[in-house]
Specification:
About 17% of the residues have low confidence. This protein starts with a strand and ends in a 36-residue tail after the last helix. Strand 5 and strand 6 form a beta hairpin. It is built from five helices and 20 strands. The chain is globular and about 55 Å long. The protein is 13% helix and 24% strand. It has a four-stranded antiparallel beta sheet with strand order 3-4-5-6. It has a four-stranded antiparallel beta sheet with strand order 7-8-9-10. With 378 residues, the protein is an alpha+beta fold.
Length: 378
Amino acid sequence: MIFRNPSCSHGFSRALQFCLSLLLSSLFAATGGSSSQDSKSTKRLAYFIDVAKEAGLTMMNVFGGVDTKKYIIETTGTGVAIFDYDNDGWPDIFVVNGTKLEGFPAGKAPTNHLYRNNHDGTFTDVTEKAGLARTGWGQGVCVGDYDNDGWEDLYVTYYGKNVLYHNNGNGTFTDVSDKAGVGGSGKAWGTGCAFVDYDRDGRLDLMVANYVDFDLSAAPAPGDRPSCIWKGVPVMCGPQGLPGAKNILYHNRGDGTFEDVTTKAHIDQTTGHYAFSVTTLDFDDDGRTENIVASQINKKKMYNHNRDGTFTDVAITAGRPSTKTVARRQAWARRWQTTMATASLTFSRPTSPTIPQPCIATTATAPSTMLPTGPGLA
């Protein structure tokens, strides 16, 4: 879906209003407060209209089973990048796609999609022409001009081999993953990624987050282990109970190839965790960019740059929420989910609940500004 926000002064959708009213009611009940008496005059914050069909964004996003999901590989979803691939000054859209366990007939498998902006509020699917049709368990995507030729390139993560697409500057892309040395082993589960010049040599390096050390052929089925049972009901296994995976840092050599410096940079000196996305910023204003890795359930990672090509995880000392705080947030999330279930509200993709930030556009892209991305952002 693509949503248009006509005005920040308009209201939330009725479903979201209802959700927020439930939350506010519970807060007032807990504190003994009462709702504002002039609520009718309160300005509404956001109103979005789904214009995907009218805009020409008609692809079907596929990821695992529709009615049931047996394995964790079917659950994470995919990412989106909004970037100007043809340098015409208009943002285009790249959507990562997945697949199903049972596969598809020949020629019917879903692929990633690139939509070119027509400058009139509509888009044209140029996937085949651009050379970006690929099928697999796509996950995240990040954007950056890794060879400094003035054209934004694409890096797409997968359960399996990751792919680096070089932008040829003529509307097409070329898979240079093996040549560049960033395809991975083919056994990892890549999730988020970000281009970042961590050593300030003028060339974008690449940080890749990995989720779970997962082997589909040997994956436990629902109910096979204690961690695959919830309140007596067999459920999908993971991520808890499955081994975490290490994150990867690639250094740009400047000749179209990258070097895996994960060990040299001490990125691997953290315990296993279920990483989803990567974001980059200079949080201590020392002129060096840090990498923050968001992970599911386990501790987040904040890799602080030591100014010598190495990093140290300083998430706890930098102010990461305490274990008790995280536990309270998780308990609140469970209560929220129970409330929503009681209210019989149906969402298209049930995930851990969040309260949206009004009137703020976020994209799963990492161009030269190095914004983060990860699965589940579609």
